[in-house]
Amino acid sequence: MDKEGLDRSQARAGRKIWPRLGIVRTASALGTIILVGASSTALADDGACRASQPIFSAPLKLERITSRLRRHEPVRILAIGSSSTQGVGASSPVFSYPAQLQTDLARMWKSTVTVENAGRGGETIPETVRRLEAALKAGKPDLVIWQVGTNDAVKGADEAGFPIYLRQGIDAAQGYDVEVLLVDQQYYPAIKDPARYERFVNLVGSTAAAEQVPVFSRYRLMKEWSEHSGNILGSMLSSDRFHMGDRGYDCLAHLLANGFHSMMALTDTTPNLAVTAAARR
Questions:
Q1: Residue 35: helix, strand or coil by DSSP?
Q2: 3-class secondary structure per residue, 75-126
Q3: pTM to 2 decimal places
Q4: Which of 186, 2, 7, 17 is nearest to 92 (CA)?
Q5: By C-alpha distance, which of 103, 99, 76, 78 is closest to 87?
Q6: Pick from 198, 217, 214: nearest CA to 153
Q7: Geometric angle at alpha carbon 248, from 141 and 15, rounded to 5°
Q8: Please, what sign has the CA dihedral across residues 248, 254, 255, 257?
Q9: Is the distance from CB of 35 to CB of 24 less than 8 angstroms?
Q10: Which residue from 11, 7, 38 is spatially nearest to 24, judged by alpha carbons?
């Protein structure tokens, strides 16, 4: 299902800027979570990027990043996964979500931030786990963002084996004392077997809960867009109607960046950082 032969234009000189809604904070029985854009303003043709449900399933500590920012040291984030991390569907690699996230975080934190793009289109979880283990051994990042599960769901992977590999990857990162954020599967209009696909989505969530790592629920976010308006989801997808396009990756990066920044503000451990996420200009 990974469609890697998409035509791409040359990198544009400027970056698209989409209207944004703010972040508000809320609490649940599970702890502090981020609720993005909860307001009366509906998603509409202005392209606002928001979700009316919590995006992070549990809090992120971000202790390593906080410590490095306090010491004015560079931050390194490893973004690993398949084509959605690689940026298939974007008009240029500079519009992949890791590239846009790097720009956003460097601006917000006023520091040197590297988001390493370790995406490889078409990959399933056994291959990604091997690469993750090798990457951790080669150099310890400050955070791992692991986008996982789409190809396993659409290529007929073993449902019983999937969480075993997921735990293996999480354990590998935690063995190096590196925090992990999982990004679950994308929602797209042509899912052939929704029941099976959602079982894989649920496997990401249940395994993450058991391992006590947070999930950024991309599936819920995109499904909500679709339920609100097919035009909203369509505007976030590339022409293949499967991968995100520039606008979708831009939104994903924005939500992640604001979520990280707000988590730091909520913990009140970074007095030198602004408590309000910087708006794009």
A1: strand
A2: EEEEEEECHHHHCCCCCCHHHCHHHHHHHHHHHHHCCCEEEEEEECCCCCHH
A3: 0.81
A4: 7
A5: 99
A6: 198
A7: 80
A8: positive
A9: yes
A10: 38
pLDDT digits (tens, 9 = 90+) for 28-82: 222 333 333 322 222 223 355 876 666 789 989 999 999 999 999 999 999 999 9
Are residues 55 and 255 in contact, defined by beta-carbon separation less than 8 angstroms? yes
Give residue for tokens 């010491």: 71
Q: Residue 22 and residue 37: Cα distance in Å, rounded? A: 5
Tokens of 215: 């999930």
Res. 144 pLDDT band, cuts 50 70 90: very high
d(CA 239, CA 21) in angstroms, rounded, equals: 26
- Residue 139, Cβ density class (10 Å: 0-12 exposed, 13-18 middle, ≥19 buried): exposed
The residue type at 200: F
Output 42 or 214, whichever has higher pLDDT.
214
SS3 letters across 210-260: HHCCCEECHHHHHHHHHHHCHHHHHHHECCCCCCECHHHHHHHHHHHHHHH
Q: Say which residue the tokens 């249940």 belong to.
A: 206
d(CA 88, CA 72): 34
- Token pair 């391992």 is at which residue? 211
